[in-house]
């Protein structure tokens, strides 16, 4: 499998470098955003965060471990969050294999140790300590040169009383291996703590040059089973454009979502939604890679941290996904599922929202019944009923006009 984690990630959905309660003061740090037609993220300045700036927006969260950091941050700003972890972290029923690998590592006393995630390092040493071999592990690594993938792995190493000798350039496993191959002689004994989805490509690169490569895997990711319907509901919500944004904190989580969509026979619909109306937000370039490969241009923060991802999602939705149009009844704004006309705000159900969004995007031009047709409509009567309900919900006479024998339009 190719590289699967970014610098801020560990466990099922990534180990946040900043929890929601630890977010730094708002600033104007440069971020990457997607603009229409762009194939790569574009760097812009992010302005200050505002309270309630996500009111009306609907966000999907695909991470498992510490997902509450994302959920709490978004909900505090007014968003409705759909949580559907596409993967979950799994520990063995008993840690026999991990302990066996640990004893092998202790006996080998590796020349180099590569630490990839803070969570993985902490769990590794906790399991060793619980089995009574924690001090032996620390002693065996005392003279080992330790390289870390990112700040969280560095923190994990230092919490054990050990020190690292350097960090990868871009906080990825691939760049960590690049550093080893460029700066150290061949023929060494290498130890590597891997994260939830083992990167065999990078291990093979090490094995091709070095005498021995020892692996410890303190945890792994597994897909959610069929008894958990949340992923399927998330796929349906994306395909029907009932979400404005979906966040990803690991590449395996992206692949798992794609796999679920394939199993539901809606993969093309999922991709089309993420390419157009549903924003995909990734914590860093490794997580972005499978999205980009599928033709999706995600937004991603410059710093591969949870706090930066939260900030970017907030600002991107507010700046780029509020639709506005001047009408005869005043300024109409669509903020996710909320329509605002003047000072009045109304929450719209999915069907009414889809109809109004199509009318708004027509900018006053006539939209035919055929173009307004939504899944589940069997005849023109159903369309008329839905439009009637939309008008009643909006309670703004004349806003949605009927053009006889042609369709409907906003009265702009």
Could you explain how this protein is built, in words?
This protein has 412 residues and is an alpha/beta fold. Helix content is 38%, strand content 20%. It contains 15 helices and 20 strands. It has helices spanning 67-76, 96-108, 118-130, 134-140, 151-159, 173-183, 200-207, 230-239, 251-263, 267-275, 285-293, 306-320, 350-361, 369-372, 380-394, and strands spanning 30-33, 42-45, 58-61, 80-83, 87-90, 112-115, 145-148, 166-167, 189-193, 212-216, 220-223, 245-248, 279-282, 300-301, 322-327, 330-335, 338-341, 344-347, 400-403, 407-410. The strands form 6 sheets. Strands 8-7-6-9-10 form a 5-stranded parallel sheet, with helices on both faces. Strands 4-3-12-13 form a 4-stranded parallel sheet, with helices on both faces. It has a 4-stranded antiparallel sheet with strand order 15-16-17-18. Helix 3 (118-130) packs parallel to helix 5 (151-159), helix 8 crosses helix 10 (267-275) and helix 9 (251-263) packs parallel to helix 11. Residues 1-5 and 7-48 have low confidence and may be disordered. Pfam families: HEM4, Trans_reg_C. Residues 7-21 have a biased composition (Low complexity). Residues 322-412 form the OmpR/PhoB-type domain. This is Uroporphyrinogen-III synthase.
């Amino acid at each position: 499998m190719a590289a699967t984690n970014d610098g801020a990630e560990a466990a099922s959905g990534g180990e946040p470098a900043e929890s929601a309660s630890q977010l730094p003061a708002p600033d104007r740090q440069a971020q990457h955003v997607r603009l229409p037609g762009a194939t790569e993220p574009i760097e812009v300045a992010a302005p200050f965060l505002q309270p309630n700036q996500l009111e009306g927006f609907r966000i999907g969260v695909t991470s498992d471990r510490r997902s509450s950091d994302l959920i709490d941050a978004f909900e505090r700003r007014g968003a409705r969050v759909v949580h559907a972890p596409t993967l979950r972290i799994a520990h063995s029923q008993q840690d026999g294999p991990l302990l066996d690998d640990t004893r092998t590592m202790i006996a080998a006393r590796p020349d180099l140790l590569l630490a990839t995630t803070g969570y993985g390092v902490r769990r590794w040493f906790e399991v060793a300590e619980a089995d009574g071999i924690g001090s032996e592990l620390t002693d065996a690594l005392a003279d080992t040169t330790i390289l870390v993938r990112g700040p969280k792995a560095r923190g994990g190493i230092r919490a054990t009383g050990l020190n690292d000798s350097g960090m990868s350039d871009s906080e990825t496993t691939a760049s960590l291996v690049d550093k080893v191959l460029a700066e150290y002689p061949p023929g060494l004994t290498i130890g590597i703590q891997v994260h939830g989805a083992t990167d065999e490509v990078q291990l093979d690169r090490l094995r091709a040059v070095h005498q021995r490569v020892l692996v410890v895997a303190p945890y792994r990711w597994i897909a959610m089973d069929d008894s958990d319907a949340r992923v399927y509901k998330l796929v349906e919500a994306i395909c029907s454009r009932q979400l404005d944004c979906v966040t990803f904190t690991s590449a395996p989580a992206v692949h798992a979502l794609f796999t679920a969509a394939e199993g539901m026979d809606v993969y093309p619909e999922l991709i089309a939604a993420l390419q157009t109306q549903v924003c995909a937000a990734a914590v860093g370039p490794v997580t972005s890679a499978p999205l980009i490969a599928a033709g999706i241009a995600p937004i991603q923060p410059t710093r591969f941290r949870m706090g930066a991802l939260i900030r970017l999602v907030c600002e991107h939705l507010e700046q780029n996904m509020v639709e506005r149009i001047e009408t005869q009844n005043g300024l109409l704004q669509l903020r996710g599922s909320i329509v605002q006309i003047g000072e009045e705000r109304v929450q719209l159900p999915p069907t009414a929202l889809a109809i109004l969004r199509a009318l708004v995007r027509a900018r006053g031009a006539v939209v035919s019944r055929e173009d307004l047709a939504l899944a589940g409509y069997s005849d023109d009567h159903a369309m008329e009923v839905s439009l009637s309900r939309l008008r009643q919900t909006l309670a703004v006479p004349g806003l949605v006009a009927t053009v006889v024998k042609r369709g409907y339009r906003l009265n702009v």
